[in-house]
Design goal:
Layout lengths: L6 E4 L4 E5 L10 E4 L2 H9 L6 H17 L6 H13 L6 H13 L6 H38 L7 E5 L16 H8 L4 E6 L6 H12 L4 E4 L4 H6 L5 E4 L3 E3 L4 E4 L2 H10 L4 E4 L5 E2 L5 H4 L8 H4 E6 L2 E6 L12 E4 L6 E4 L2 E3 L3 H7 L8
Parallel strand pairs: 4-5, 4-7, 5-6, 7-10, 8-11, 10-15
Antiparallel strand pairs: 1-2, 2-3, 8-9, 9-14, 12-13, 15-16
Bound molecules: 5-S-methyl-1-O-phosphono-5-thio-D-ribulose.
Protein name: Methylthioribose-1-phosphate isomerase
Keywords: Amino-acid biosynthesis, Isomerase, Methionine biosynthesis
Family: Belongs to the EIF-2B alpha/beta/delta subunits family. MtnA subfamily.
């Protein structure tokens, strides 16, 4: 698979490199990012996607903006770079978090060279932090899988996931997939139901690819199959990722997540969201009213991409004149979320539960 990380700095080339997720699973290409605009394009065109990876890419984007700076007002230019990056995708809060934190490490008392080094260090540090967060999410989530497996002698724990909250969405291990990877490593029998995740098919294309590479038993299902499986006791646990989770525990994630949570609640299936603290929006309390939901190009709805005779082709799948709508995310209200799996442990999807794990935030909120 080459580099086990999803994004890395190539010292020889003096460039950032990442896997081009637009071509998976058909082709495994690496793409170079050498400027602010290339970093932004990587985010908007979904070369990179997934909340933590978007954040890390934006942090490298800030570094690249500084490295390529040639004007006379460095600070103003960095502000512009920050705004430019923030306008790329609205829902994942990791993006604004990374850009604002990057801005906070530079100072007008430093030379441009010093500030550039600080921004590079910041991007590398955020990447390492996300790796650590994923590991710890894995460790805490593993306990949930272990507890279920005790009652399933000789049978795999059946986990359903939506979209791709895997290593491709992060740097390593993923969020929703981190407990899955650790359970597999620990020899616990598991099987993953992978929602295809229309319209871009991140489940069918990316999660299935990742799990396949790792040798984890999985089955891709159409998005609407989850409810049926849950009614027939074929799902023990749902784990999804998140793009933004509010302080009261509302979870924004890929469109369709809410319907899975409704089906899980109706069938008493535990529904967890796995997320690092970089995905928590400490300023919001009402996800449905306050989280901006990205609307993407309708082309993603009317067009499907697939392999035919060893070549990637695009196919129109609906009448030319039919209008389409493409909401990228939805919000699952906290009352439908059994718990949040974070790098500090599992908590209730409530303000109290979150602040118990992150008490330093109580002072600010
Ligand atoms: O539009 P995408 O592919 O960026 O959406 C990604 C998701 O919805 C993921 O579930 C989310 O970012 C969590 S990633 C660990």
């Amino acid at each position: 698979m080459g580099n086990p990380q999803t994004i890395w700095y190539n010292k020889e080339k003096n460039l950032v490199e990442t896997i081009d997720q637009r071509f998976l699973p058909f082709q495994n290409r690496v793409v170079e990012i050498g400027s602010l605009d290339e970093a932004r394009f990587a985010i908007t065109d979904m070369i990179v996607r997934g909340a933590p990876l978007i954040g890390v890419t934006a942090a490298y984007g800030m570094y690249l903006a500084a490295r390529n700076f040639s004007g006379d007002d460095f600070y103003l230019e960095m502000q512009r770079a920050a705004d430019w990056l923030k306008s790329s995708r609205p829902t994942a809060v990791n993006l604004a978090f990374a850009v604002d934190e990057a801005l906070s490490v530079i100072s007008d008392r430093n030379t441009v060279l010093e500030n550039t080094q600080l921004l590079f260090d910041y991007a590398e540090n955020l990447k390492e932090r996300e790796i650590e967060f994923s590991k710890n999410i894995g460790i805490h989530g593993l306990e949930l899988i272990k507890a279920i497996s005790k009652n399933k002698i000789g049978e795999p724990v059946q986990i359903l996931t939506h979209c791709n909250a895997g290593r491709l969405a992060c740097v390593e291990l993923g969020t929703a997939t981190a407990p899955i990877y650790l359970a597999h490593e620990a020899g616990i029998p598991i099987h993953v139901w992978v929602d295809e995740t229309r319209p871009r098919n991140q489940g069918a294309r990316l999660t299935a690819w990742e799990l396949g590479e790792a040798g984890i038993p999985h089955t891709v299902i159409p998005d609407n199959a989850g409810g049926h499986l849950m009614q027939h006791q074929m799902v023990d646990l749902v784990i999804v990722g998140s793009d933004r989770t509010t302080l009261n525990g509302d979870v924004a994630n890929k469109i369709g997540t809410y319907l899975k949570a409704l089906a899980a609640a109706d069938n008493c299936v535990p529904f967890y969201a796995a997320l690092p603290s970089t995905t928590i929006d400490w300023n919001l309390n009402d996800g449905i009213a306050e989280i901006p939901i990205e609307q993407r190009d309708g082309r993603e709805v009317w067009m499907m991409e697939g392999m035919l005779n060893n070549e990637v082709h695009e196919f129109r799948i609906l009448p030319e004149k039919s209008p389409v709508a493409n909401y990228g995310f939805d919000v699952t209200p906290a009352r439908l979320v059994t718990g949040l799996i974070t790098e500090r442990g599992v908590c209730k999807a409530t303000r109290e539960g979150i602040l118990e794990l992150f008490p330093e935030r109580s002072l600010k909120n």
